[in-house]
Specification:
The structure holds 2 protein chains of 2 kinds. Chain A is mainly alpha-helical. In chain A, 64% of the residues lie in helices and 3% in strands. Chain A contains 15 helices and 4 strands. In chain A, helix 5 (136-145) packs antiparallel against helix 6. The two termini of chain A are 33 Å apart. The N and C termini of chain B lie far apart (79 Å). In chain B, helix 1 packs antiparallel against helix 2 and helix 2 runs antiparallel to helix 3 (52-77). Chain B has helices at 3-24, 28-48, 52-77, 89-114, 127-137, 139-165. By secondary structure, chain B is mostly helical. Classes of the chains: A mainly alpha, B mainly alpha.
């Protein structure tokens, strides 16, 4: 944090915050759409398709609905806590994203070169864990302040679950910390650069000293539990305790919990991609001669543009105009991304976002595949299986490191 | 006034106000939240001393783990508002003067000590320096403390088991 306390730093950080906030809130809205679409197709349904082509304007409709619904406060509620609980959840979920680095390059704002991260601090990983660890208060206090037994049960379950799974979550990344020797997220990514035998990327998942497969396994499960998602969504288990901690919430306060859940999903997915999947690093080694792998972002954009145009021509009226236009826009972006000046800038963010999207897809996939844990199963699994496995990973990694030296 | 001093004063004011609020609140859950505020303000103070590691650990361990347990227990017992009682005669005539005396003494000692003392910034983000101290220079006291905590956990387990396993009052003919 040795930054000079000047105005320009403040202004530039503020610009970055506003841009990132806009991007995150938009992706949260479309992550909901994504989840509903994937869920629907997994179950052989169509999902949202009425509002806009392929239901693409559904998030806007949802937002309007949340804003216009009646906002109720239950009688006997602890009003101050009842109002602050959703704010705690959303604020902490979003501010954790400030520590995530999105690419290796710098951008120029008002002539000042600045990296693609808001807060590049030495203990970035710990800071994110700090944010997620106090995020539980949003849920717990919502359960307490609602003056409802279902909410209270949800809050109780959530705080017990968070304490249990936080241990495994933190322990699962210790192996990586031992290998890399730093808490800084950008440095953690740079340590994963290189290729075993010339083609296998040296991401922590495939680390040459000891592949962190056990660590990834533990991190992935503990992260689902930390974000209170199925099969670990006992805090809101609708078949047992109505809607758990947010039973009494309505209107925009409910929307804040909803957005908080999806924002923390994005955070843990970003962290999974940074810690285990090499962050912004490309999975392909540089080829001699013309480096064709650098044109993959362009190719993907062009392919999706063509797909949109073809699909748009099968629709009627509104979508017949909008979808091909979007496709053309993607085509133009694809052309822009293949230009010499721009191509270096898009590599990092492209691979980073691709990995994050993949992790998010698996999250959604898991949610709509596995049934919910029973409470005793949850506790037994967390303490008697996940925690020892994470501990085993730490021991194995330390052993491998000592043998390697 | 330097910006650091302004931030320090704000954080210190939050910490002190939170600490006072811990005592004054009647709902246990409000007291717990006040204590969490104190923890977070303290983490901010550590950050001001450029020890990022301690600041992060302060939040993760105290605000994120220990206080979650406090809140969990308060919610589990569904503890309601406490009753206010007038101070007992003992507290009024012995406790209050002693407390005031302690406060004056502490203020005097801290005031005398800090005039000659300045905080030393730790090199390279404090993580490495701290682990060197903990795991090299002071490894014996560190491990001793861990064993002490382990014994405390075992003791708590034994006490909990005793009252549950064999109920003492089973007066049956």
């Amino acid at each position: 944090m040795n930054v000079p306390f000047t105005q320009s730093i403040l202004v530039i950080s503020l610009i970055k915050v506003v841009v990132l906030l806009f991007l995150v809130l938009t992706s949260v809205a479309y992550l909901v759409w994504f989840e509903r679409k994937v869920a629907a197709h997994l179950q052989g349904r169509w999902g949202p398709y009425r509002v806009g082509p392929h239901g693409l304007l559904q998030p806007l409709a949802d937002g309007a609905k949340f804003l216009l619904k009646e906002d109720t406060t239950p009688a006997g509620a602890d009003r101050l806590l009842y109002f602050t609980a959703p704010a705690i959840t959303l604020t902490l979920a979003i501010s954790a994203i400030a520590m995530i680095p999105f690419g290796p390059t710098t951008v120029h704002i008002f002539g000042v070169a600045t990296p693609l991260v808001i807060a590049n601090i030495n203990v970035g990983l710990l800071a994110i864990f700090a944010m997620t660890s106090i995020g539980v208060y949003g849920v717990a206090l919502a359960g307490w302040s609602s003056n409802s037994k279902y909410s209270l049960l949800g809050g109780l379950r959530s705080s017990a679950q968070m304490i249990s799974y936080e241990l495994s979550l933190t322990l699962s990344v210790v192996g990586i910390l031992l290998l890399a020797g730093t808490f800084n997220l950008s440095e953690l990514i740079l340590r994963q650069d290189g290729f075993t035998w010339g083609y296998l990327p040296q991401w922590n998942l495939l680390n040459p000293i000891l592949p962190q497969i056990l660590g990834f396994f533990c991190y992935f499960i503990a992260a689902i539990a930390e974000t209170n998602r199925a099969p670990f969504d006992l805090a809101e288990a609708e078949s047992e305790i109505v809607a758990g901690y947010h039973t009494e919430y309505s209107s925009f306060k409910f929307a804040m919990f909803f957005m908080g859940e999806y924002a923390s999903m994005i955070t843990v997915a970003c962290l999974a991609s940074i810690l285990f999947l090499g962050g912004w690093l490309s999975p392909f080694p540089p080829t001699p001669g013309m480096d064709w792998t650098r044109y993959i972002p362009s190719a993907v954009l062009a392919a999706s543009g063509v797909a949109l145009i073809i699909d748009g021509l099968r629709h009627r009226s509104f979508a017949r105009v909008v979808l091909p236009l979007l496709g053309l826009l993607l085509g133009a972006l694809s052309f822009l991304c293949s230009q010499p000046g721009v191509i270096d800038y898009v590599q990092g963010p492209f691979w980073f976002l691709a990995k994050v999207l993949f992790v998010l897809f698996v999250y959604v996939w898991v949610r709509w595949t596995l049934p919910r844990f029973r409470y005793d199963q949850l506790m037994r699994f967390g303490w008697k299986f996940l925690f020892p496995v994470a501990l085993l990973n730490v021991v194995l990694t330390s052993l491998a490191l000592v043998m390697h030296r | 006034m330097t910006p650091q001093l302004v931030v320090f004063l704000i954080l210190a004011a939050i910490a002190v106000a939170g600490a006072v609020s811990v005592i004054l609140q009647r709902e246990p859950i409000h007291s717990a939240i006040s204590l969490i505020t104190v923890m977070i303000a303290l983490a901010g103070l550590f950050l001001l001393l450029e020890s990022e590691f301690i600041a992060a650990v302060q939040i993760i361990v105290y605000a994120g783990a220990i206080m979650v347990l406090f809140v969990f227990v308060i919610m589990l017992l569904n503890a309601g508002a406490e009753e206010r009682t007038n101070m007992s005669r003992m507290a009024r005539y012995v406790g209050v003067p002693l407390a005031i005396f302690l406060l004056i003494e502490l203020a005097y000692q801290i005031g005398a000590a800090t005039s000659s003392m300045t905080a030393q910034p730790v090199a390279d983000g404090a993580t490495r320096g701290l682990s060197m101290l903990l795991f090299q220079d002071f490894v014996f006291p560190f491990e001793l403390t861990s064993i002490l905590i382990l014994i405390a956990i075992l003791g708590a387990l034994v006490l909990a088991q005793r009252s549950e396993g064999a109920p003492p009052q089973r007066a049956k003919q």
